[in-house]
Amino acid sequence: MSSDGAERTWRRPVETRVATAVCMAVLPVLPGLWLGLTLVTNHVPNGGWVALELAVAAWGILAWRVLAHSVTLTRDTLVIRNILTTKRVPLADVTGVRFRRGVLTVTAAHEAAAAKRFAVSVAGLGSAYWSGLRDAADVAAEAISSAAGLPPPPPRREIISRNWAWALLVAAVLCVGFGVYCGPLQAITRPHVSFALAEAGAMLYGLGIATLGLAFRITRDHRRKRARQAAADK
Q1: Which CATH number goes with the domain that contains 91?
Q2: How far apart are CA 100 and CA 119, in angstroms?
């Protein structure tokens, strides 16, 4: 809740939610194919179309939940809208707000009931978990703590320093380069390349691609930290 008592809502960027909603179309594919095959083999009229319509409807529900993915802080309630569930947590019951494995987690207990943890998946830190960059999730955590009458979460520390981030980025680029050299490039220049070499190239390429994105984001976070520090020092 803001200082004037208005509700506050945090969401992921629109482009992220739209991309996730599009990717959700993959989930109903296999169930839809299985249902369509079952209906067709049992000679159900328009069985394929029925399965397609149900799969599209299931995807529509998932896409709607993704687009509505958010956390809202009202005067007395925290509304957590995750993709599959919606939880309403009274602020009076909130006993803790902290980050667990890069995801904001709210702990609540009502009277003598056992405490429960609620993950606020929309307030994930992403690469900021490793770089220590102040993120929108930190703002949400502080606002929820303040509304619940709790002290703010302790400042986060960087896990991967700027130098290590650059080293990780260089290592990822080298893995991608060696993966391409040992795989596709060798297959072109040497038609009878060994299976072991091709497999090693594929593993290096996959490892490099997986690491490259994370290393790039951590390096970018450190650049933003330096820019913010420079702006603050002026």
Answers
A1: 2.40.50
A2: 9
pLDDT tens digits along 33-87: 888 888 888 888 888 888 888 989 999 999 998 888 899 999 899 999 988 889 9
Task: Say how far apart CA 120 and CA 87 lie, in whole Å.
Answer: 10
Domain, as residue range, for 224: 162-233
- Give the closest residue to 105 by CA, choosing from 151, 158, 153: 153
Rounded to two decimals, what is the model's pTM? 0.76
How many structural domains are present in the chain?
3
Residues 78 and 143 in one domain: yes
From start to end of the chain, where are the E strands? 8-11, 70-73, 77-81, 86-90, 94-100, 103-108, 116-124
**Distance, CA of 39 to CA of 16 (rounded, Å):** 36
Count of beta carbons in the 10 Å neighbourhood of residue 26: 9
Helices in the chain by DSSP H: which ranges? 14-23, 29-41, 47-67, 128-131, 136-147, 162-180, 186-189, 195-233
If you search the block for the tokens 């003598």, which residue do you land on?
112
Among residues 169, 148, 156, the alpha carbon closest in space to that of 225 is found at 156
